[in-house]
Amino acid sequence: MPELPEVETVRLSLVEKLTGRKITAVTVHYPRMVELHSVEEFKRSVTGKTIQRLERRGKYLLLRLSEDLVLALHLRMTGQLTVQPMKQPVADATYFILRLDNDTELRFRDQRKFGKVFTFSANTLPTALAKMGPEPLADEFTLDMLRKRFTGRKLAVKKALLNQEIIAGIGNIYADEALFVAGIHPVRLVDSLTEPELEQLHQAIRQVLQEGIANRGTTKRDYLDGEGNPGTYQNMLRVYGRKGLPCPQCGAPVAKMNFGGRGTHFCPLCQK
DNA sequence: AGTCGCCTGGTA
DNA sequence: TACCAGGCGACT
User: Distance between CA A123 and CA A68 in Å, rounded?
Assistant: First the structure.
């Protein structure tokens, strides 16, 4: 799914179309995607509210509605969010629709049905958001903070990067890319990283996420932005999805291993 | 800390 | 036919 750069790209591509719009109707075609409240309660609380701001936290897109209500959407693996004119035919696998007051609709399409939507009150965050780690692109995400969040943990660095409570928004693609850029092997334990390695990793995390946003995200298969366009960062990936192809740095074949249940790509020569 | 379940579709 | 996939929470 969409990781931080993809969700941010969706946010940027939807902000003009959604800000200030009133939600006039809610349709749910797959009830299990609604969390925390019953579908009926969810529809009742959202209908009639105005979308005041679009925000992102980690991989969540947050619609701040009137009356301090927040509507959270998580695209998981295959979610797509687009705003379309109501008259346009609804694509298959569209499970969630917000009808807006200008004859458009926010449509949530999701082939694998893993996506989630829920509401909460702005002053009482649900646990997933309350426990979430820092935003890696915010100024507050300093080298010092990364060091503090790693020290004392017996945990492989790749698992740490994927843990949303340690750092928000990184998924499998950007974890592999950041570790390559930092020259760090994915199975290294976080408390074995030297100070220069921590510095390189801190820098690499921010670099690959910024590159991802600048390239409007990575489209391996399903990802599309809010206007239905694919990203271009897949053409610039250094190791992810490049098993057997030459490492951009040394030319050795990129390796792929299964680690922690996730495909993990790395250069066995450049990453120590 | 590791595995399973949630789902569907594409590819080997 | 089996395996794999941008995620994550609930289980042992």
Answer: 8
Q: How many CB atoms lie within 10 A of CB A32?
A: 11
HEC per residue, A196-260: HHHHHHHHHHHHHHHHHHHCCCCCCCCCCCCCCCCCCHHHHCCCCCCCCCECCCCCCECEEEEEC
| Å between CA of A165 and C1' of B6 | 22
In this complex, the answer to whether residue A32 has its CB under 7 A from any atom of chain B, a nucleic strand, is yes
- pLDDT for residue A1 is more than 90: no
Rounded CA-CA distance A184/A267 in Å is: 9
Q: Which token pair is A105?
A: 């609709």
A14: helix, strand or coil = helix
- Quick check: pTM over 0.70? yes
Q: Can you state the percent helix, strand and coil of chain A, rounding each to 5?
A: 30, 25, 45
